[in-house]
Task: inverse folding
């Protein structure tokens, strides 16, 4: 059987194709534009972006497979003496046009570290999927979480609750005391331990990857033709501002990428296309906007 | 004569009134909305925002006067053992509607630190004004810098070149290898030394404050009715995305404020109202857009 690393590379490439195809099919108008890029220190990536579709205003679905000497910033960041690394992953952010359809983000990744003699000294998986609605439809939140739980439960029923909480904790705009969205799953540093081998984590991560489309796409299919007003579109653009705030102020991956000369256009592919900031906008008590804010303030267990 | 601290408080309050009045007059339609706020640890502020004017799409002009126990984060940030502090300043960001008119930012501030016995152990002034055009008009850049230089030269002809360079260095989107704009002046930690007393720095900082309106307003007056296309408006919104990137990724004041529970709406008042991010937009060689990028890549000495 092929190396776990090689199998995961095949997996993310296949998943990228599958997700792009499904997005294009549901959109029915726009197609992905592809950019291949090389990383000076080793490896490269395949960035794909779809813009101004009928359903999707902007969708970025990228893979990168990079390796080489451990950059100094990475050593410091990870507090490690590792000498070389290999990292690969798929990362996506999808912004539908219709404010009734939620934005989503997902990524699935593998990291391996080597000593001077090219011996593996550490390896782990990470990833997750999360949902950022502009208007709250409880059934959509429940559907998304139920699909995430179903995929996780195949491996260990302790994982969904743990990674659901990690997602709420991580995707938080602390300066607003608000969640970025209504959560999903977030896992990192999944290493071989007494309960799970690295092969187990491979199986878990690929299953979570496969669960992305069934978690998200049916929600967009249901919401894409729902009517909306200019005020609702305005609200979506304001909330997209919060999305930008999280990604630029708090997201570790984005900041690390920007500070270590990553490919800026691929890193910031995640940012929404049209965004607004107005001063101190207040929502009306009892309004759908206030209802959204309430669940962002206080994360909810959707499956109880 | 009143305490330097009290005189500076009076100065920034008066300057806030003067600038708001001049902005309203030039706008001719919208007026500033004022919010007074208290800081839990001591002091407070006066935030003023004008929105959706005829000339100005968004303008925020705020003063804050805060004091109290040194927050732990501030001690760490400043590597000091000071026990109490006093800080006051005026801060403004102005985003005109017309893409031919530049965005501007300015702030002027004073900081004083005390030991346990309320003895002053350190004190300094800081501030500056800078310009962020969407289209480059050399005469505007020269006017802005000439006014800044004229005000600085009254005190010491070494200051403009030093603070002009500090401005280029500070307002840089390192991840894009671009300046945020075409510069101006930036000064900080201006303390009593062998060349200048603290009173000298008071005089310098207030003169730089007074030079803001003559530096900026004539440029907007000249550009506000210039015609523009949808494509030029699109370019302005894209470039505003860069403004957001600087403020959220690099600006020390913004990040420090967000991380220490400052008033988020007052801190992020600086963000432009309508913003876009599109993937990997390229400019045409020899176009006005390319001409702007060229001077952002390589800061220029406008007064040579």
Result:
């Amino acid at each position: 059987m092929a190396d776990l690393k090689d199998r995961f590379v095949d997996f993310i490439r296949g998943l990228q194709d599958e997700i792009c195809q499904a997005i294009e099919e549901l959109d029915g108008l726009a197609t992905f534009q592809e950019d291949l890029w090389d990383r000076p220190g080793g490896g490269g990536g395949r960035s794909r972006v779809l813009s101004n579709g009928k359903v999707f205003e902007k969708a970025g679905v990228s893979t990168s497979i990079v390796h080489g000497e451990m950059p100094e910033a990475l050593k410091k960041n990870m507090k490690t003496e590792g000498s070389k690394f290999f990292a690969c992953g798929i990362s996506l952010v999808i912004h539908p046009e219709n404010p009734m359809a939620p934005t989503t983000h997902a990524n699935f990744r593998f990291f391996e570290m080597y000593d001077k003699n090219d011996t593996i000294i550490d390896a782990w998986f990470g990833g997750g999927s999360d949902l950022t609605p502009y208007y709250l439809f409880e059934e959509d939140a429940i559907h998304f979480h139920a699909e995430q739980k179903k995929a996780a439960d195949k491996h260990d029923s302790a994982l969904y609750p743990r990674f659901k909480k990690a997602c709420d904790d991580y995707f938080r705009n602390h300066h607003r005391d608000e969640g970025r969205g209504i959560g999903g799953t977030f896992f990192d540093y999944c290493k071989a331990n007494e309960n799970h081998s690295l092969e187990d984590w491979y199986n878990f991560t690929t299953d979570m990857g496969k669960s992305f489309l069934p978690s998200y796409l049916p929600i967009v299919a249901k919401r894409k033709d729902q009517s909306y007003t200019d005020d609702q579109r305005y609200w979506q653009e304001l909330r997209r501002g919060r999305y930008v705030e999280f990604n630029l102020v708090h997201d570790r991956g984005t900041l690390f990428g920007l500070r270590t000369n990553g490919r800026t256009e691929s890193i910031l592919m995640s940012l929404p296309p049209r965004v607004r900031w107005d001063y101190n906008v207040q929502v009306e008590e009892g309004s759908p906007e206030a209802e959204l804010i309430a669940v962002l303030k206080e994360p909810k267990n959707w499956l109880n």
Remarks:
- Chain B has a mean pLDDT of 96.
- Chain B has one domain: 4-165+183-228+251-272.
- The domain at 4-165+183-228+251-272 of chain B is CATH 3.40.1500.10 (oxygen-dependent coproporphyrinogen oxidase).
